[in-house]
Amino acid sequence: MRFRPGVLFVHLFLFLGGLVMAFPFYWMLATSLKSPQEALQAKPIWVPERMKPANWLKAARLGDSPLWGGLAPGRSVELVFPGREGHPPRALVPRTPGAFFDPRADGTRVEVVYREGAWRVRLTNTTEEAFRFLPLVVLWPKEVPLEAPLPPDAIRSQGEYWRLEWVNAVPGALGYVFHNYLEAWHAAPWGRYFFNSFFTALTQVAVGLFLAALAAFALARIPFPGKEAVFVLILATMMVPGEVLLIPNYVLLARLGWLDTYYALIVPWLASVFGIFLLRQFYLSLPQDLFDAARIDGAGYLTQLFRIALPLSLPGLVSYGIFTFLGAYNALLWPLIVTQSPEMRTVQLGLQAFVSEAGSDYGALMAASTFVILPVILGYFFAQRQFIQGIARSGLK
Amino acid sequence: MRTFPLHALLSLGALLALGVYAFRLGFLPGAWVGVGLGLYALLVLWGLRFGWRHVLLGLGLFAYWLPPLAFLAPLLFALLFGRGLREKEQAALYGWALVWPALALLLVWHVFPTFYAFYLSLFERVNFLRPAAFSGLENYRILLQDPLFWKALGNTFWYVIFTVPVGLFLATGVAILLNAQVAFLGFYRTLYFLPYITALTAAAAVWRWIYHPEFGFLNWLLRTPGLDWLNTPKGVFALLLEPLGVQPQGFWAGPSLAFVAIMVMSVWHFLGYQVVILLAGLQAIPKEYYEAAELDGASFWQKHRLITWPLLSPTTFFLFTLGLIGAFQVFTQVYVLTPTGGVLQDTLTLAFYLYNKGFRDSDFSYASAIAMVTFFLILVLTLVQRRVLERRVNYEI
């Protein structure tokens, strides 16, 4: 094939466009790995400290376990600050603001000693419980050049000193990198939210698929009186935008006493016109001879449906499944309306609540956004072809 | 010889079951249930002429206590004695039996609510606190004079005008480039497609961070520190024309800067979907057309204007319709980016206004009126564009 200079331009355009499309994802990831001070910079930081492998190694040495860190009772950790003797730095474990009792601040023994050309800050857990994280503040004299054992999460000026702050002095490698993720995860009952979302979406997919397959088969392959009327009715339902259904369905759910239950999240969306259409199209495209042959062999309609039509329409089923799952998992408006209690929140609702509550903790917020979209993205990478074809199929006339 | 219309009894039974539920919830007067039960009993009595085993169908008369029985009794009967039925009867029976589960759900959650929404809109302030008075079309009269409604309508109008054509234009460009047989097709497609499967809530949270007035990436990129994208109610036309000394007012000032920011995010999010659909459409165009055109010496533009554009028109038309309907219901991204509807309600959309009226002010009837007007607008617009555009759409390949 001869080389066409046009190809270069095509790549240039596609790549630049792709850069714009992908940038928000990178920015989300990068911010989710930033300390608050890094996130709140007027000049953006492209590669935060927590993204650098050299720092992972440093963090792995701090804490009991190299991966998750932590400090068990009676154990201690030593942070080494190379520097000259003279002005000693000061170190303390900051109190949680407003806390009546803070085991970390009260139960950690802090010693600062000079040995072998370096100041050593030694933290010892004197309590009975293990610390998952341990914040630390070190006041470092300004005239001594600083070489920290782990890049501090925040540096402020305090008189003669630099005030170095760590959100966790015993992180371990993963605890260091994914600090914001852990924080976001523990800030809300995400496990429950994920369960709600998956349960809702998967039930909708399973039951919806079954019902749509039954109806679509009847509409495509069984000549029954009144078929045209049913078809027209289903066509007409397609014209009604979802917005119209919000209020009456809410009232209906209220009358049924189903508000704030799984029924409210699932039942109204079980029958899908789109699914019926899609599968009907599939069944119509199968050769009639197949069904005639089965008929001659004595197969009833149900046998034809379950033994012939369903297995052959697998791509259609997958396509419908992906669409329904995406719709249910990503929905915000409907769960927002029909649920009130935090236990019934879906992940999107949980994220929306987190957005309004997290305030300026953008690291945690971006971490939460990341793990909310993660299941779908992972699903995409595992079943890329099904995703693309499934979506493309929805546009076939 | 005429036979017993079992499928009619089955359908009557399904309707009867729904009727009993409706009666229990107070949507239907008891007399209707009586009529239904009477009809059912008459049919069963008539069935006795065809054999005493039809007594079994009488089970359905207990529908008053256990509604699904009315549907299940004929089904059970068919399963027991279905073998003796003739071909045509079997088709009628199975057709209806397979269609009813989905159809019943559609009737309850799609068809009935559509009419119920209209019914609700005829009352004066429906909420659950007190009985509402009938007020005819009063809500619609108020709606037509409601400045906020016009504001929301204007905003939604701008949203449609901006996002639908721009999104389609960009998507067509990308799809044509992707269709040029470049290397790394899968990579580029993934880049463009990922935003679409990302939950809107999470995506909007990320964009909110990008739009942050002090630490946002966009302000750094454009060197516009402090520009509060999402809280700027000034219209973009007004902003653009300001240097020329022109000051458009009201609607003609254009969508606010905040709303344009939301639109950019929306285009970014939906682009991948359109690209995938258009790419499928492009790949369905036979290569021979392009080869023939190349032999005749057609240029790049000629090929795409004379071959791609007309042959792609059904897909474009489909996406246009879909975009129009979707744009009229835009809610999630607006809600996450500007939770209060923006400064001076400058990002209020129809769906957002409906949500505010229904679920913040608990005025279900007024919200229903908004829903009905939206429905009407979508219907008219789709019909108009069908009339105007479909004549230009080329369905033959």
Could you please describe the fold and organization of this structure?
The complex is a heterodimer of chains A (397) and B (397). Chain A is of the alpha+beta class. Helices cover 57% and strands 11% of the residues of chain A. Chain A has helices at residues 5-32, 36-39, 53-60, 103-107, 172-177, 179-187, 190-221, 227-239, 242-256, 262-266, 273-285, 288-296, 301-312, 314-330, 333-338, 347-358, 362-382, 384-393; strands at 76-82, 90-92, 108-115, 118-125, 136-141, 154-158, 161-166. In chain A, a hairpin with a 2-residue loop joins strand 3 (108-115) and strand 4. In chain A, helix 7 (190-221) packs across helix 11 (273-285) and helix 17 packs across helix 18 (384-393). Chain A is elongated. Chain B has 397 residues and is mainly alpha-helical. Chain B is 68% helix and 1% strand. Chain B has helices at 6-25, 30-47, 69-81, 87-120, 138-144, 147-178, 185-197, 200-210, 217-222, 236-241, 257-283, 287-295, 300-327, 332-337, 350-360, 364-390, and strands spanning 123-124, 133-134. In chain B, helix 13 (300-327) packs antiparallel against helix 16 (364-390) and helix 15 runs antiparallel to helix 16. The radius of gyration of chain B is 29 Å and the shape is globular. The two termini of chain B are 50 Å apart. Chains A and B meet through helix 1, helix 7, helix 8, helix 9 and helix 13 of A and helix 1, helix 4, helix 6, helix 7 and helix 8 of B.
| Main structural class of chain B | mainly alpha
| Helix percent band of chain B | 55-70%
Q: What percentage of the residues of chain B does DSSP assign to strands (E)?
A: under 5%
How confident is the prediction overall: mean pLDDT of chain A?
90
What series of H and E elements makes up the topology of chain A? HHHEEHEEEEEHHHHHHHHHHHHHH
Q: Name the chain pair with the biggest interface and residue counts per chain.
A: A-B, 102 and 104 residues
Radius of gyration of chain B: 29 Å
Percent strand of chain A equals 5-15%
Helix count, DSSP H or I runs of 4 or more residues of chain A: 18
Question: Count of helical segments of chain B?
Answer: 16
Report the count of strand segments of chain A: 7
Which quaternary structure do these chains form? heterodimer
Fraction in helix of chain A: 55-70%
Count of beta strands of chain B = 2
Structural Rg of chain A: 30 Å
The residue ranges of chain B in which pLDDT falls below 50 over 5 or more consecutive positions are none
Residue-averaged pLDDT of chain B: 88
